[in-house]
Amino acid sequence: YSWRHTPKTQLGEFNLTEIETMLGSYTKVLFVRDPFQRLISAFMQGMGSSPSFSSFVQDFLDSSQQASVAWKPLVNLCQPCLVQYDYVVMFGFLRQELGHLLQRAGLPTDSLPPEFTDTQVQWTYSWLSEQMFSELSLQQKQQLSHLYRWDLAAFPFSSSFLSD
Q1: Entry's Pfam families (predicted)?
Q2: Is residue 52 part of a domain?
Q3: What is the C-alpha to C-alpha distance for residues 1 and 11, in angstroms, rounded to an integer?
Q4: pLDDT digit string (tens) for 5-19?
Q5: Could you tell me if 23 and 14 are in contact, meaning their C-beta atoms sit under 8 angstroms apart?
């Protein structure tokens, strides 16, 4: 189906037979990250015009139907119940899982990121998550937990602040 495939073609533009054929010929890898950490990252990267994290979250909640890909629920973006992914790589275990993935693909594993990355990033996000979560109202916390409920059910984000 390469005649219909362009860089902007989305999977939903193909019929079911075409989708099954294409997906059957690929190694499918899904990279997942705690949805609350994705929101923090989007806020820190200035993806909104809000002065505070709380107002950023409220803007997001008010317009969640038109939300950026950066913070939409993963189950809506990646369809993990429909697409049978060969690998699911969790943020926080990136180095180990990428090493395994590269090895399985027969690629050299000597070009992985430095080992300290995951540990330092996880500690930073843990601290940052705690600070940012404390800024939110109870209603915002409940709305976020509800919005990301399927992500939290589909992936083992055991330490997510939204799981509580």
Answers
A1: Sulfotransfer_2 (PF03567)
A2: no
A3: 12
A4: 566 677 778 888 888
A5: no
